[in-house]
Amino acid sequence: MLIDATSLAIINHLKDGRTSYKKIAEDLGLAEGTVRSRVKKLMDEGVLSISGLVNPEALPDQQIIMVGVRIKGMDLVKKGEEFSKLRSVISVCVVTGQFDLIVTAMLSREFGLLEFFTQEVATIDNVRSVETFVVYKSFNLKVPLTGQTLLATGGHPA
Q1: Rounded to the nearest 5 degrees, what angle is found at the Cα of 50, between the Cα atoms of 137 and 19?
Q2: Which residue ranges in the chain fall short of pLDDT 50?
Q3: What pTM value is reported for the model?
Q4: Phi and psi at residue 82, in whole multiples of 5°?
Q5: Residue 7: partners with Cβ closer than 8 Å, 6 or more residues away
Q6: Rounded to an integer, what distance in angstroms lies between the CA atom of residue 106 and that of residue 49?
């Protein structure tokens, strides 16, 4: 889906995720129903998602890692999709450079590096090598709060 100027303006108004459809409609001179249907279409097509994000450093017993992955063969998109389905994975990017994929994951005390690699990454075929980067300090990084994270921190999923 190509994003036109109206959809882009609506998305810009949703930067903080809390602006009402009514306010957006007033600001852009649109009907509230138009804004609502545009947002729904953008979400249905996977162009837009609205969610609460949290600074991972504020979560007790959580650790962000980034993993550079080298794949045997060139089916990078398929491998990226496989990695994206692994437990604790936040994002996967197909990249240029010395790695084929960059995987970002949030681990906990109960499901750490050892479990991530032996129980999850080991299930994927044709991985040539991995290099792990532990994030000690991040700037502008916000991540989705998952049910797994809530349970690991003693919270309760909704």
Answers
A1: 105
A2: 150, 152-153, 156-158
A3: 0.76
A4: -60, -45
A5: 38, 42, 47
A6: 20
